[in-house]
Specification:
The chain is mostly helical. Helix content is 49%, strand content 3%. The protein has a two-stranded antiparallel sheet. The longest helix is centred in the middle third of the chain and has 16 residues, at 67-82. It is elongated and about 60 Å long.
Length: 191
């Protein structure tokens, strides 16, 4: 369809029941279709369409455990930056409302999903390991509170501060509060 002249940046009308405000790239991202996302990037799509609240394809791709989809979203952000649009680091830093994790960045979503590859990609693209979500939690805090020990190790390896406080609590204290014994043991070992 792109080769036949389809507008790669056309958005679903606001009155639509599903995907309002999204372009084809966002729809491919939410469904984790990395190859289609790559084709749309090559055709000149922009990734910064979404629900009007800052949510973009980058956020969808970050929580899907599909590194190729996140790579395509980051490539779209880089192409947009090269064309004078939003900087990749700014796109990575956007925190957005979502139904199950409050206001979160792509890094928060990838950490909650347990996607170590996506976390590495996002940090490589400039994501801030100390960024806070709506409850003042960093990605390490989320990993500790959910018992994702592998994710905790990756975040610390990438530079997350094990002793940073989230609204008064450290990752260790959050893990203890949630009864995450393996996370507590790992944090004691790490920090």
């Amino acid at each position: 369809l792109v080769r036949l002249g389809a507008d790669v940046n056309a958005v679903v009308p606001d009155e639509a029941e599903y995907c309002s405000g999204w372009n084809a790239f966002c729809i491919a991202a939410v469904n984790q279709h990395g190859a289609i996302m790559d084709e749309l990037v090559a055709a000149g799509t922009t990734m910064l369409h979404g629900a009007g609240d800052g949510w973009t394809a980058l956020h969808d791709a970050a929580m899907g455990k599909r590194p190729e989809a996140l790579a395509a979203a980051l490539a779209a952000a880089a192409a947009e930056e090269a064309a004078g649009g939003i900087r990749v680091a700014a796109a990575v830093a956007v925190t957005v409302p979502n139904g199950w994790a409050g206001r979160s960045s792509a890094l928060h979503l990838a950490a909650l999903a347990g996607d170590e590859g996506s976390v590495r990609q996002l940090v490589g693209a400039g994501a801030d390991l100390g960024a806070r979500d709506w409850l003042s939690r960093a990605a390490l805090d989320l990993a500790a509170a959910t018992g994702r020990v592998g994710m905790m190790r990756v975040l610390v390896e990438l530079g997350a501060d094990v002793n940073a406080e989230d609204g008064g609590q450290t990752a260790l204290q959050l893990a203890a509060e949630k009864g995450r014994a393996e996370a507590v043991a790992a944090l004691l070992d790490i920090g």
